[in-house]
Fold this sequence. Notes:
This protein has two domains: 118 residues, Alpha-Beta Plaits, CATH 3.30.70; 231 residues, no CATH class. Helix content is 25%, strand content 28%. It contains nine helices and 15 strands. Strands 5, 6, 7, 8, 9, 10, 13, 14 and 15 form a nine-stranded mixed sheet that branches. The chain has a four-stranded antiparallel sheet with strand order 2-3-1-4, with helices on one face. Strands 11-12 form a two-stranded antiparallel sheet. A hairpin with a 5-residue loop joins strand 11 and strand 12. Helix 1 packs antiparallel against helix 2. The chain is globular. One magnesium ion binds next to loops. The site of fructose -6-phosphate has 11 residues, from loops.
Amino acid sequence: MRITLSVIKADVGGYVGHSSSHPQVLEKARECLNQAQERGVLSDFHVTNCGDDLQLIMTHTKGEENADIHKLAWDTFVECTEVAKSLKLHGAGQDLLSDAFSGNVKGMGPGVAEMEFEEREAETIIIFMADKTSSGAWNLPLYKMFADPFNTIGLVIASNMHGGFSFEVQDVKEHQKITFLAPEEIYDMLIFLGAPGRYAVKTVHHRETGEIAATSSTQRLSMMAGRYVGKDDPVCVVRAQGQFPAVGEILEPFTLPQMVEGWMRGSHHGPLMPTSVAQANPSRFDGPPRAISLGFQLSRGKLIGPRDMFDDPAFDEARKEANKIADYLRRHGPFEPHRLPLEDMEYTTMPQVMKRVKERFLPLED
Ligand code: F6R
Ligand code: MG
Ligand code: MG
C-alpha cells in the first residue's frame, strides 16, 4: 500500500511571547484535520507543537505536493490564525507570508517535509521537529545516522545497510541541488554539509533499493520574505529499522547538543537541546533551541502512536550539557560567536547606526 506522510508546519502565533502554542490553536487544528479525515482526504493525522510552531502530521494516499493536502494545511493555518488573533496571541499568522493560496504551500511560509513510500510489513517512522533554529540543523544528525559508522553500527555489520546511502543536498541560496554517495564521497559532501546556513540535506535514499529513507524541510523563511519574519524551525522525517538505521541509531546523534543558529531574535548561536514535547517551550533567552522527536508505527496509513522519543532519562546528560553550553555562551552577551556574524543576524540596527555615525569615521593615518 502506497502511503504519503506529509508534515507541514507554521508559526501562527505564540503563547506566551514566542515560547509555546495555545491549546485552543491546537484544538482548532485537530478540528480541521478531523473534518478532512471524515471527508476521506486524510487517512490519519496527529497535531502537536514544538514551542510556538504548529505541526500537522498527516497521512494520505494522494502523493507528495498534492494541492488538496497543501490547501488543507493552508486553510488550517488560516483558521488557527483567527483563533490566535481572537486571543491576541503574539505574532498571530507570522509565518503566512501570502494572502491567497496558490496550489502549494512551498514558498508561502510554512515548512514542508513529505515522503511517499510502500508501507512495509512494519513501518517505523521518527519525526523530528525543532524550534528557534534554521533549516540545515538536520545536516549533522542526518550525516551521523546515515554515513557515520561511529554512530550507526548497522553501516558496518548489517548486510542490508552496508551498501550505503545517497544524500541530496540543496544550495538554498542558489536554488540548486546535488547528490552525494556515502561512504565514498563523504569528504566532498562534508565541505557542503558543514555549512548548514547555505547547504541543507533534503533527502536520503537507500542506495541498493532506491527507497526514501529521510526527508527534511529546507524552506528558508527569511529568503522567501526578503526580511526577517521568524526562524525556519525545520522538521525532518526518518524511516527506521530493517534496511534503515535502528530507532536508537537515529536518536543517538542528538546526545550531542550541536551548535546551531537561531535562539534569541534569530541572531545567536546556541546548543540544540533534545526534549520531550512537554519541555519544548523555549523560554530562557527565548531558548535554547529545541528538538523533539515523535515515533510512530504506521498501520495501513494509521499513525499508531506517538511515542515521545526524547522523553527518556538517557537524554538527561545532553540536556545538562546544553544548559552548560548555554550558560557559557550567554556570558558573551552581544559578542560573537554567541551573536551571529553581522550578515547572518535576523535583527540588526547596523544600517541606521552606520548612517548616523558615518561622518565620524576618519581615515587611518597609515
Ligand atoms: C526567535 C524568536 C524570538 C523573537 C523575540 C522578539 O526565533 O522568535 O526570539 O525574535 O522574542 O520577538 P518580537 O520581535 O516578535 O517581539
Ligand atoms: Mg513565533
Ligand atoms: Mg518557532
